[in-house]
Amino acid sequence: MFKNYLKIAYRNLMRNKSFSLINISGLAVGMASAILIFLWIHNEISYDQFHEKKDRIYEAWNRDVFSGKLQCWNTTPKVLARTLEKDFPEVESAVRVNWPSSFLLSIGEKNFAGRGNMVDSLFFDMFTIPFVKGNSQTALKETYSIVITETFAKTLFGNEEPMGKTIRIDNKDNFTVTAVVKDAPNNTRFRFDYIMPWSYLRKQGNDDEYWGNNSTRTYVLLKPNASLASINEKMKTLRKTYDSDEPKGEMFLYPISRWRLYSKFENGKESGGLIEFVRMFSIIAIFLLLIACINFMNLSTARSERRAKEVGIRKVVGASKFSLIGQFLGESILIAFISGVLAIIIVQLSLPAFNKLTDKILFIDYSNAYSWLFFIGFILFTGMIAGSYPAFYLSAFKPVKVLKGTFQKTRALITPRRVLVVLQFTFAIILIISTIIVKEQIHYAKNRETGYDKNKLAYMFIVGDIEKNYELIKNELLSSGTAVSITKTSAPMTQGWSDTWGIEWEGKAKDDKTDFDRFCADDHLATTVGLQMVAGRDFDLKKYNTDSSAVLLNESAVKAMGFKDPLGKTIRDNGKEWHVVGVFKDFILQSPFFPTKPMVIEGAKGWFNVMHIKYNDKNNMAANVKSTEAIVKKYNPMYTFEHQFVDDEYNTKFKAEQRTGTLATLFAGLTIFISCLGLFGLAAYTAESRIKEIGVRKVLGASITSITSLLSKDFIKLVLISFVIASPIAWWLMYNWLQNYPYRISIHWWIFLAAALTSIAIALITVSYHAIRAAKANPVKSLRTE
Amino acid sequence: MINITNLEKVYRTDEVETIALNKLSIEIKKGEFVAVMGPSGCGKSTLLNILGLLDDPDAGSFVFNGTEIAKYNERQRAELRKHNIGFVFQSFNLIDELTVFENVELPLIYTGVKASERKQKVDEVLEKVQIMHRRNHYPQQLSGGQQQRVAVARAVVNNPKLILADEPTGNLDSSNGNEVMELLTNLNEQGTTIIMVTHSEHDARYSHRIIRMLDGQTVTENILI
């Protein structure tokens, strides 16, 4: 019986090639989109879930009030790890992982850059990172030991045996390779090329026991059966015991299962996070698949008159309804199978682009049995969904009616087919509206006044000998005419690295915990980056030698401090006094979607990591960069020259939103494509089934235009209904999305008009092909067919 | 074999009520060859549908092989039908996507006959209707007479006790029609009961008995043998 079904299914496919093509291509595109999204979702939900001890792994977090809001963050004092081990019997071990460092690694004469962390020695005991060579017990025992990944070992040593080899760090310390581990998978927060022991960090003098310095991440492994609730209760008062500065601050342990998807806190509680994207993407995947399935349903039932006779005969010769349902489901599963194979090809071809778009390394694991199981399940599921409605619809035909020609198609106002088309277009229109709004919002923020001049402004980090030779480099850049102005700063202009609520000034209220962005610059900052001064002047060490303790305030800071006449006022920060010499217009330091914060820029007595260069626009920019490279190389020969343009860097602030925009465009495009395939098929069917009516109308004098519009009208009505349903949903979704951005557009009516016109135009173009063809046909022919 | 009493069937549309069968009573014995005749709309097709268990009566009794089946539901009717009744239609009603062999094989598949046995039975019956040489052709590749012979083969492949033929020669020329009628007569001679609806006096003469209907009732019965 099964063979018989397969045969009929195959012959039906071949007989109606255009319908098969529409069905298969629509389903394939829908399935491919769903698979891509599933890969993304799988990657997200499996983040750090492969550690064998994951049920016992936690991260230490803080909860405290800042700027009037209860906030949570996960950087901890370095001293926390040992304290937890000492004070809490439930804790098996605590491991610190510091920020990625970028040491210069040398082997002989060759230099390498890599990304590494310094960690406590039990790191490999807590987290499951398989060893290729060496073992977790001895890997980080000695201070001068280094663990490298397989790939990094290849980079450093080629095919030579890496174990026991020496790597020189920052040109001063020799490290021995004690272990080689597998590369981190694509779903972990721990990404590194090498791992070094915490004891080296201590040796460099970077360890401290200060509770006020939240400077590292602390991971905790609890003993089996330890109660999280009781530990968290005790951790609430940990700072009270040890931290005299911030005794009210609470701490808590946060489980590994929630790190990736849930760790967005608002008012001290979990609030959304990546899980919202996971949910949204799941919905989109399901809808894309559903829309493709709807095509199949609509086209199958539209063609039902052709299949009706077969159903009738089969029933007469003894088929039960059940066996017919089986037959039709079998057909849809066959189509789903063909589409599924095509979908895998599409996925494989589009993965590189999708990975680039999502900034991930996703792949299909063909060696994993679960992948295949999922794939087969997915095909069956798709086939069942697509085939269910047609199967029940077709198998319900009464043989008496279909075999005796009294079979009538419905002329009802609301048919399932129309409802399904409306559903498809509703989804498409929601996506069209969302796409326009996301793009508008990005455009709006991009056009926002930055507050400084990004043009021809570049920066580089002060690494190696740049600090020592700073004056020489600066002078040579200026005297060679490469640069017109140079300043040292604490951070790039596009990044806020430091903030504080500890600034003091005359008249500050006792409970005032206003948070200030803290920035430092040595000399000629306003000139270099083009700040707009509204009062006072720029730093100028040559003219005013007291400027090393000068400070610039932005307008918001002046307002926050309540200064009527800020120039000459003194403020204190961390025990140092600074005198105000100038006020500048607020500039965007961090997100262009958020209001600017009060900001202080402290003078040459501050700390510096970055050098900003305003290039001479009389020269060609490439020449400027080349000469800068030559000069910097001369004074800092060990390091590779790395240098960023501020406006490129500034553009990355829109990365997340641009990605959202691109994804919305992509999904909208796919939805429209699949929906239009279906519409195209339906239009063909309608034109065919009304061929006699069209013939009669033409004989009676109807024009081609009037017939085309007659055939298109019905579909346009459906699109309009979809628009009416989609608009409020889209408005609500995008209204909520925009709430994430204090600096945002309002949703204009023209966006909806544009979406309506776009969707109508698309539908019209799709439908008109068949409508015009039917209208142009010779009525003599069409009337003879009856 | 068949005993119907006071059978009624009414078709309703929004405004019109059509009485198709009006307290109809007929008895058909095992092994009979009965022709049903009458003008269009007299109810003969309705009668055939009910006899063929494709439709259910609104009232009255229908005893098939000693069992009252007027109140059977669709599944029960389907079960009874596939083991006992074969159909021959005016428009052949072969499935276009299946070959001659596959069309004839279909009833055997639905009654769960094994593949090897199916092949043997189908070949046997194709031989009998002399269409063996076309077993791998599709219906469109055959003449009308050949198609109807395939349809007859399909109707008898399961050895049904009853064959219902709805104007089996209606779409055929006279020589092809005669061939089909000969085929039916042969089957009847081998013991199969046949009920045939026809407009053709010529065809009716092949039967044992002619039931003439008008307005949902029998008017006369002519016994021919």
From TrEMBL, chain A:
* Organism superkingdom: Bacteria
- Tell me which GO cellular component terms the UniProt record holds: plasma membrane
Q: Name one Pfam family in it.
A: MacB_PCD
ABC3 transporter permease C-terminal domain ranges (all copies): 283-395, 666-779
Describe its membrane topology. Multi-pass membrane protein
Where are the membrane-spanning stretches?
21-41, 277-299, 328-349, 369-397, 418-438, 663-687, 715-735, 747-772
Question: Which keywords does UniProt give here?
Answer: Cell membrane, Membrane, Transmembrane, Transmembrane helix
**Which cellular compartments is it found in?**
Cell membrane
What residues does the MacB-like periplasmic core domain cover?
Answer: 20-237, 521-595
Q: Tell me the GO molecular function terms.
A: transmembrane transporter activity
Annotated InterPro entries:
ABC3_permease_C (IPR003838), MacB_PCD (IPR025857), Macrolide_Exporter_MacB (IPR050250)
In the UniProt record, the signal sequence range is none
Matches recorded under PANTHER family: ABC-TYPE MACROLIDE FAMILY EXPORT SYSTEM PERMEASE COMPONENT 2 (PTHR30572:SF18), MEMBRANE COMPONENT OF TRANSPORTER-RELATED (PTHR30572)
| Name listed for the protein in its UniProt record | ABC-type antimicrobial peptide transport system, permease component
Task: Give the organism, scientific name.
Answer: Sediminibacterium ginsengisoli
TrEMBL record, chain B:
- Keyword Transport carried by entry: yes
- One Pfam family recorded for the sequence: ABC_tran
Q: Which organism is it from?
A: Sediminibacterium ginsengisoli
| Example of a GO MF term | ATP hydrolysis activity
* Keyword set, alphabetical order: ATP-binding, Nucleotide-binding, Translocase, Transport
Which InterPro entries does this UniProt record tie to the protein?
AAA+_ATPase (IPR003593), ABC_transporter-like_ATP-bd (IPR003439), ABC_transporter-like_CS (IPR017871), MacB-like_ATP-bd (IPR017911), P-loop_NTPase (IPR027417)
What are the ABC transporter domain coordinates in residue numbering?
5-225
Q: Which SUPFAM superfamilies match?
A: P-loop containing nucleoside triphosphate hydrolases
Q: What is this protein identified as?
A: Putative ABC transport system ATP-binding protein
Q: Which SMART domains match?
A: AAA
Query: Has UniProt tagged this entry with the keyword Transport?
Result: yes
Family assignment from sequence similarity: Belongs to the ABC transporter superfamily. Macrolide exporter (TC 3.A.1.122) family.
